[in-house]
Specification:
2 domains, alpha/beta, 444 residues, 14 helices, pyruvate-formate lyase- activating enzyme
Length: 444
């Protein structure tokens, strides 16, 4: 496909669309009336079936100007300590309503910057979870800000059983780091990687962002040189989502030169080419992994999943979220905690779960969730497996005409050219989707 064809596709299809880490998406969640749906879901968990646990720690020590997360900047530890006290109360409150001791497949600490918390507080959280859940087979993951990581914490994390660390790299270029207000030198990260390996933590993920201010193909290429020198197990490459109507601080980036759509596309293709040539396997739309990584095995075995953390080999169908803004996922519902910190504390102190939004899924929702997840993971779907979902033939015909998909019998196959637009393709199976500029980030 030549450059003019790519430009034409981008002009036509690069519009705001969900990331489909869930379906229905969080846009469809409704204000909660009571906690009945949540407790009903807890009561119907299958005894012995592992669940996944998500723990949200919404604090950072400085504001990254690209950030779209629910986080708060604090410069003393007391707000974090107070929050963790409340978080532990929430875990106890929820766990007392479980009918059996559930096994756990995964514990994921997200944020914010979870490694801003003191190690003893991470241990308190794990100890509390261990009183109510069977953690004997749990893999423990943590998102980490490299600027808040050191040898002592790495040693402590290894002792606590953490086995996968995700480092928020974003970009190694000094000019880009200055623009986004996130200075973290390569040599510092390199020393941390060495310390992680010395402590037998070999499952290391890098998160990169393309489309940041001051990025060029040259700076992206140089960042990839450094990434490949450090050889992380996985690399996630996310397009920068400029959503200043949701995150007003992102307006600070508008004084810089921002890569246009075609350049962002070229950055993504450069990244894919470099990583593939270095031996990484392509996973879905934005992940890459070394051939020996468990995510590659899950992809090849046909059991890779997609959830709020992105692509995963976690087999759990249920995710219990704890903490401010966290989302719980059940077979028939989603629930989300409040994002209001004072309300979160007040509600938990009153002995109530701090829910703010909920969505009960119909059977059609559940069927479409499976279809969209299959499409996002495998780039193909057989409509024979989804007989109750109407096939949007006219819309798919236009996508096929533009070379994004092929329809062979009852099977839809995303083409190589169509893979960057798979979120657009998935949106044709989303009856809730409306093409509105202030709801989602652009597709590419």
């Amino acid at each position: 496909m030549n450059k003019d064809d790519i430009k034409a596709l981008l002009a036509k299809y690069d519009y705001p669309v969900p990331r489909y880490t869930s379906f229905p998406t969080a846009v469809q969640f409704k204000p909660v009336q009571d906690a009945g749906t949540y407790f009903d879901c807890l009561s119907t968990l299958t005894p012995g079936e592992p669940v996944s646990l998500y723990v949200h720690i919404p604090f950072c020590h400085s504001l990254c100007h690209y950030c779209g997360c629910h986080t708060k900047i604090v410069h003393s530890y007391s707000p974090i300590a107070s929050y963790i006290d409340t978080l532990i109360k929430e875990i106890e409150l929820v766990s007392r309503n479980l009918k059996s001791v559930q096994g756990v497949s995964r514990i994921h600490f997200g944020g914010g910057s979870p490694n801003y918390a003191k190690t003893q507080d991470i241990k308190r959280i794990l100890d509390t979870l261990g009183r109510y859940f069977d953690l004997s087979s749990a893999q423990i993951d943590m998102e980490c800000d490299p600027r808040l990581l050191n040898d002592a914490k790495i040693s402590d994390y290894a002792a606590l059983g953490l086995s996968r660390i995700s480092l928020g790299i974003q970009d190694f270029d000094a000019g880009v780091q200055k623009a986004i207000n996130r200075i973290q030198p390569f040599d510092m990260v390199k020393k941390q990687i060495e310390a992680l390996h010395c402590n037998s933590i070999h499952n290391i993920n890098f998160d990169l962002i393309i489309g940041l201010p001051e990025q060029t193909l040259e700076t992206v290429n140089e960042t990839l040189d450094k990434v490949l020198e450090l050889q992380p197990a996985r690399v996630a490459v996310f397009p920068y989502a400029h959503v200043p109507w949701m995150k007003k601080h992102q307006k600070l980036l508008e004084k810089y030169e921002m890569p246009e759509t075609v350049l962002r596309y070229e950055m993504a293709k450069l990244t894919e080419t470099r990583l593939k040539n270095a031996g990484y396997e392509t996973i879905g739309i934005d992940h890459f992994a070394r051939p020996d990584d468990s995510l590659v095995r899950a992809l090849k075995n046909g059991n890779m999943r997609r959830n709020f953390q992105g692509y995963t080999d976690d087999p759990a169908r249920t995710i219990l979220g704890f903490g401010l803004s966290s989302i719980s996922q059940f077979e028939g519902a989603y629930t989300q905690n409040t994002t209001d910190a004072p309300l979160y504390r007040k509600t938990v102190d009153n002995g109530e779960v701090p829910l703010a939004r909920v969505l009960t899924l119909t059977q059609d929702d559940q069927d479409r969730r499976q279809l969209i997840e299959e499409l996002m993971c495998n780039f193909t779907v057989n409509f024979k497996n989804y007989k109750n979902i109407p096939v949007p033939h006219s819309a798919l015909a236009l996508l096929e005409q533009d070379g994004l998909i092929e329809i062979i019998g009852s099977r839809l196959q995303v083409t190589q050219s169509g893979k960057p637009f798979v979120r657009i393709i998935a949106s044709h199976f989303d009856p809730y989707f409306k093409k509105e500029s202030n709801r989602h980030a652009k597709a590419v």
